[in-house]
Amino acid sequence: MQTVHTGDEKIPLLNDPAKRSLIYQVGVMLMVAGLGYYLMSNTLTNLERQAIATGFGFLEKESSFEIGESIISYSAADNYARALFVGVLNTLKVSFIGIILTVLLGTLVGIARLSSNWLVSRLAAIYIEVLQDIPVLLQLFFWYAFFYEMLPSPRQALNPLSGLFLCNRGMIFAVPADHPVWGWMGWAFLGACIVAYFLRRWAIQRLFNTGKTFPVFWCALGLLLGLPFLVWTLGGAPVAMDVPQLRGFNFQGGMSVSPEFAALLLGLVLYTSAFVAEIVRAGIQSVNKGQTEAARALGLRQGQVLSLVILPQALRVIIPPLTSQMLNLTKNSSLAVAIGYPDFVSVANTTINQTGQAIEGVAMIMTVYLCLSLVTSAFMNWYNKKMALVER
After folding, report:
1. pLDDT digits (tens, 9 = 90+) for 297-324
2. Which of 329, 269, 330, 290 is nearest to 107 (CA)?
3. Which of 70, 139, 177, 221 could be stapled to 267 by a disulfide with Cβ–Cβ 3.0 to 4.6 Å?
């Protein structure tokens, strides 16, 4: 005889998978919350027993230490909040420039790795193997020692070009003297970049619709150079330069790139670009060879085949692992403390040593790098969705 179950029959609580999983999740959350409360209360009790201040009130106090490099104005009389902000900007500077250079260099090396020229392919392979196998910290030490040991003192500085000096204080070079027209030229260049972007999109759409090519490169180059030049001409065509001069034991004037920044940037870019090159190579090889043959059959040149057919398809494979390498470069920038570059970790460590508030300092370091990673991931996820194939 079969047992008939009616819809009104109640299932025991622990036999209902949905309710049982909910109970387990609530139980785990309560255990984690209890553990967090115990650790927090125990920490606060120990800090109070040792008369160690807590909270972020120290951020308003005078920092009383100098920072070697700063994008914004800063002095030892400023508070800790401004000092930490200087560290954040320094980290953003090396990370942003490093990511751009890494993507460009890694793409070039990855394409060279697939070159039919034996010498070019072997050199790219050696570049990848050597730089991948040497820890990034050792590379930072090498470049830092190179700039300090191999380059002369400021008094014997190398002068390969007029207004350019190389010494163990960094690379010092002449820059245009302060004038409003340079800011206008910057806006003009940005506008030219936007116009060139939409021009390229229009040219690609025109190619797909009519089969006719358009000289995008030369038109974009003309915009990027011509529009700022036109603004410079209309602004009075200033030519005055701020040339560095040796005064005492160092140079004054011009602009300088410190050995610490150069060593950090060079080490991070060379190390990370080796991994990016392999990602680019794998992405290109993932594209079916029939795509290349079909593009050539249509009469497209090699450069057009690469930019219009291969890379757009390869990007769908390249972007996810490329995002990881961007995050690695940003996080590896914290190694700057080993060579004296004042990034956020370095400034935060100095703040911790002076205030004794290690918990708050470490919490800020974790928060800053978490935010940088989330922003980078969000942007790359958006770009990845934009490049994804859309099924009809």
Report:
1. 877 777 778 777 888 888 888 888 999 9
2. 269
3. 139
